[in-house]
Amino acid sequence: MEETKFLKTTALPRRLAVTISLIAMMLVFGTQKGSAQTAVASNSGPVCTGGTVTLYETGGSAVSWLWSSSGTAVFNDRNLQNPVATGVVNGEIFTVQITDADGNTALATTTVIVYSLPPARPGQVTGEETQCRNAVGVVYSISPVVNATSYLWEVPAGVDITSGQGTLSITVNIGPSAPASGTIRVYAINACGTSSPQRSKDLYVSDPLAAPGSITGSSTFTYGATGVPYTVGTVTGATSYVWSYSGAGVTINGNGSNYVTLDFSSNASAGQLSVRGINACGEGIASSLELTAAAKTLLLSSVLLEGLYSGAGTMRQARNATGPQYAADIADHITIELHDATNYATVVWSLPDVPLSTSGVAEINIPAVHSGSYYITVRHRNSIATTTALPVSFAGTSISYLYSAPSAVFGGNLKVSADNYYLIYGGDANQDGSVDTRDYVPVVNDASRYTTGFTFTDLDGNGSVDTGDYVIMVNNGFRYVRARYPY
Hints:
Layout: H1 2-30, E1 41-43, E2 47-48, E3 53-57, E4 64-69, E5 74-75, E6 84-86, E7 93-99, E8 105-111, E9 114-115, E10 130-132, E11 138-141, E12 150-154, E13 159-163, E14 169-174, E15 181-190, E16 193-194, E17 199-206, E18 220-221, E19 228-231, E20 240-245, E21 250-253, E22 259-264, E23 271-279, E24 282-283, E25 287-293, E26 295-301, E27 309-311, E28 314-315, E29 330-340, E30 347-357, E31 362-367, E32 373-379, E33 386-387, E34 392-393, E35 398-402, E36 415-416, E37 422-423, H2 437-448, H3 467-478
Parallel strand pairs: 2-9, 10-17, 18-25, 26-35
Antiparallel strand pairs: 1-3, 3-6, 4-7, 5-6, 7-8, 11-14, 12-15, 13-14, 15-16, 15-17, 19-22, 20-23, 21-22, 23-24, 23-25, 26-31, 27-28, 29-30, 29-32, 32-33, 32-34, 36-37
Helix pairs in contact: 2-3
């Protein structure tokens, strides 16, 4: 029994200890209703001297507020969440203590800036004075102004501020209705007012360049003509000029000025000559002049070269070391000359590098100015020069001539082929007007070197200098073949 009593009496203090611990935990954790949130203080400044300041507390779930000041500011009610203070001085610190429903407190401070004067005049505005009409993304800016809290920009009507109003830098678009000249202004601002005077910058708006006047120059051209002049009057505001031609085969000399010369190739085509003034704003409106060829057509047929002749009135293509030298259906290139009818030694007009088709046809344009009668001479890089039997009339706009019989060429100087076609003699490798030992040397030398490619010593045009070339040269040398001219 004694032992039982002991157990009962010793059990009571242990239960009491547990109960006390539970009560303590409830006091620490269970009885608290919450804690105050962090206080946040701010104000409506900056203000000018003598101005009023509204104070703000926005941090927690307070039920009461108490504001105090480091200076002598007067509150309308220091117990409001957002009181108004007067008599504030620059740098004055305001402190708010908030209290929540459970009596927990927190503090926060805010400092008021007070200005005594408007800001100073802004410094120089950076940005280009001259802008192009319809320019976009143009930037103007200034350096920061002491005590300024904002900036006011003013631009001319027709100029739109797309971003940056109120800041140190604005971006504008120069609209189509912007004036030719105007002023950009900027003011620095704070609570005491606006800087005086403002800072200004002139703005000049450049319009697209007008079209030049009419182009002065011939509206027709002759093939092969060079240095043909064309000009326009000066364009106000233009710093340069750009000329262009829509056709082919024309070279423009002197581009960049209001005066140019044109070179017309033998295959120049009709087109439009245009010129525009240009400056920093780009190209202006163009002036144009239509150009057409003042020419007539010369068609030569049955021009068959002995070295390239393959039979049935056709020729092979002259080859280089790897294949045909010219485009498909072109046998080789020739030179065509017009000679004075009364004095053959006078070359009236000539055109080199004329394509000769594999069927022996060459067609070219002749300047219209040549309307008399002329001997026509055909020259080839290693053939005998061959001339028409008589002067040919160029009175019309289309002239045709066939080299199809000895009677068609001066001195009957054509070779008859095995199939009865007439050919221009080959073998004149050095182009001195005759086939002789002076042609022999370069041909034999190149043959001994196994020379390949498109060369004047390749008399048969097969791409290599060999015995085939030697045969042409020797046979025509034995015949004393030479060029025959009407003098």
